[in-house]
Every structure is written in C-alpha cells, then in structure tokens.
Amino acid sequence: MLKIVYKYFFILISLFFSLNIQAQYLTLDSHIDIPFDYMDNPKNDPGNLTEMQVDFSKMKSGGLDAGFFIVYVEQSSLTSDGYEKAKDLAMLKFNAIHKMVNTYPNKIRLALSPSDIKKAKEDGLMSAAIGIENGYIIGNDINLIKEFYDLGARYITLAHIGHNQISDSSIPKKSLNDSYKKHGGISLFGKQVISKMNELGIMIDISHISDMAAKQVIKLSKTPVIASHSAVKAIANHPRNLSDDLIKQIAQKNGVIQVVAFSSYVQVNLERNRAINDLRKSIVNLAGDNDFVYKKHSQYSEYKIKLAEIDKEFPLPDVNYFVDHIDYIVNLVGINYVGISSDFGGGGGINGWMDASQTNNITSALIERGYSNNDIKKIWSENLLRVWSSVESYPIKNSMQNPSG
Ligand SMILES: [Zn+2]
Q1: How far is the CA of 160 from the centre of ligand 1 (A)?
Q2: What one-character DSSP code corresponds to residue 107?
C-alpha cells in the first residue's frame, strides 16, 4: 500500500516539475492543420475535449503556448475555376480561425506579430498565428496576397504536393499529370509573389517546393526564409527533406528550419511505407478515386483501423529520432537556425508526441540531450520569432531607404 502511495506521489511530483520547467519556455509549433469544418462541428471545436491532436485542453496540459494554424488547400488544376474554388475553401479556414479567437477570447488570441505572441504568454493566454499552405490560393491575382495578409496570414508555403503557378513542388502530383518539373524552379509570377511578400512583410516558406525552387527563393528574397515543416535529408532521404546544402543556405540567410514530427520524414522505414502504400491503394480502389485523399470521409474510419495495425507492426519513430534531426542541424550550422513543428492534423505525430498534450516530452528530450535553457528557448520559439521580426520590419526599413512621394 505504502509503495503505491509513494509511486503516485513520485509521479505527481515529477509531473509538477516537468510542467514547471515547460512553463518557462514560450513554445511555438509552426504547423498545425485544421479541418474545413473547424469550429462548425462540435467535434472539431478546440474549446471542447476532442479527438483532434490539438485542442485547448491538450495545449494546456502539454504546455504548448502558440501555433501557426494553417489555411491549407490541396493542389488542383491551374484554371480560373480551380483558383476560385481554392480561394473559397481558404476563406472557410480563415473564417474558422477568426471564429476560434472570437469565441474564446479568454483562452487564445490572434497573433499578427511576434510581440503579440510574447504578450499573450505574459497575459497567460495562448496564441494563434496564421500560415497559408499552398500559394495556389493566390491564383493569378497578386493583390490577393494583401487581402490574405489583412486576414492575418504571416507565412505562405509557396506550393504543396503538385506544381502550381508559383513554383515546382518537391513531389509532382500524378493525378494532375505533373511531369518532373514545370518551371525549373520558380515561375515569373512566382518572382512577383516573392517580392510582394517581402514588401508586405510575410514570411516565405520553402517547405514542399523543389530543391531548385528553394535555392532560387533564397536568392530572390530580400528577407530570411523559413522551412515551416521539413526535416533533414541526410537522416531521412525523402524528397520533402532538406539537403545539407539547403540547410546551410537557409542559415546563411539568417532563416530557420522548423523540424517536423511527420513520421516518414523523421525516419525512412521502407517496410512501413510499403504497407501504407498498399493500404492507400486499397482505400483508393474502395472509394473509386484516382489518388489517395487524406481523411476521405467515406473510407477514413477503415483507413484508421488498418493504419493502427501497421503502427503496431512497424512502430513510428520516437522523440529521440526527432531530436536527432535538431542535433544534426545544430551541428551543421549552429543553434540559431532550428525550430519545431508538429504537422498535427495533417498527418504529423511520432511516438511520444502524438498530440499537443505530449509537448513537454520534446522539452524533456532536449534537456536530456544537454541543451541549455537558452538553447531550448531558441529552439522552441526565439529563432522563428527572430526571423518573423526581421521579415515584418523589412517593409518599414525599405520604405525609409526608398522614400516615395
Ligand atoms: Zn505540409
């Protein structure tokens, strides 16, 4: 009996200490996906106890202070009809994020600048910044970037899976008949997009785009760039991951790489991949689609059950694998160019960080690896906030150097 009491006492004490340690860091996850019925469906309302990987109670219990909530729209055809539909879908997510902060003002606040995130933490509130995943939603209308900025977007991932009007993707999309490359990097319109983003103070995200495109962006952008959710190619050889050369170029430009907890980018496990591919093929056949659609509603529950079986047979990489990627970047370019992202809601999740309630496990792993307090502060948010500050102040500096009128 006494033994059990001791055991629980010990668990309580260590929980108390780990949460206390966690509280001193401003923790920022740079990539959290949301569904299209976010805030409309009670199941997808973060104010409730949900099955989503991120909701307020999970953020609170894991000590996650802030996140970039993502306006993601899947790549489709490069036609005016496609662009119009994409913009409508994007608006659903912008509206949902605004509804979230308006519904829960005493829990979470919209962050339009790094100072908003710091202020919210001081006030004991969480914060939500907004990132756009897929510049596809800009269509051919350069003025839309300002509209999205006014809605709160502070970074744009130029492309997703599939080439778009702005950039080549690291993964061409079969169902759109993509060839290996479309523009040989960034398109002419893409160059205009980059200079517009610089002018407005929006961070440029090179995650998902091809290596050639990323190199061109780093050269073209007047401000540091980010990889909002990518990992290290030298550890996991996946087209979505970053080569040493790209990591060095991002660092030289004073940017940041936000290591992502997406299992197949953290660890290449060929047997697991084969099993998942086979599963996806069977789901595609079942649904009568050309391509696997993540969370395709009719077959999603079937997919989840089968995926759980695969998870048992070929376990996901754990937090230690994840921290290996952080170590690698630190050894290659130093402590100032690395951060953290989950990709929760978009396929992210590894053993030990399956949802926001386990966020403190990442901090514990960093402490175990010997990172100092200051290092951990940089990794958890200061590096990304430094880049964001530099990007948001560029329009002001630029207008002082080139006064007009
Ligand atoms: Zn992504």
Answers
A1: 7
A2: T
DSSP letter string over 317-328? Answer: PBHHHHHHHHHH
Cα distance between residue 209 and residue 251, in whole Å: 18
User: Where in the chain are the domains?
Assistant: 27-269+314-401
Cα–Cα distance between 65 and 295 in angstroms, integer?
Answer: 27
**pTM score > 0.85 for this model?**
yes
Q: What 3-state class would DSSP assign to 57?
A: helix
Between the CA of 17 and the centroid of ligand 1 the distance, in Å, is 34
3-state secondary structure of 229: strand
Contact criterion met (CB below 8 Å) for 206 and 158: yes
DSSP 3-state of 350: strand
What pLDDT, in 10s, does the model give residues 72-130? 999 999 999 999 999 999 999 999 999 999 999 999 999 999 999 999 999 999 999 99
CA distances from 236 to 77, 210, 255 (A): 31, 16, 21
Helix (H, G, I), strand (E, B) or coil at 108: strand
Of the candidate CATH numbers 3.40.50.410, 1.10.3660.10, 3.10.129.10, 3.20.20.140, the domain formed by 27-269+314-401 belongs to: 3.20.20.140
Q: What is the distance in A from the centroid of ligand 1 to the CA of 290?
A: 20
- Per residue in 192-206, pLDDT tens? 999 999 999 999 999
Q: Please give the distance, rounded to the nearest whole angstrom, from the Cα atom of residue 133 to the centre of ligand 1.
A: 7
- Distance between Cα 208 and ligand 1 center (Å): 7
Query: Tokens at residue 151, please?
Result: 């809605």
Tell me, in angstroms, the distance from the centre of ligand 1 to residue 206's CA: 11
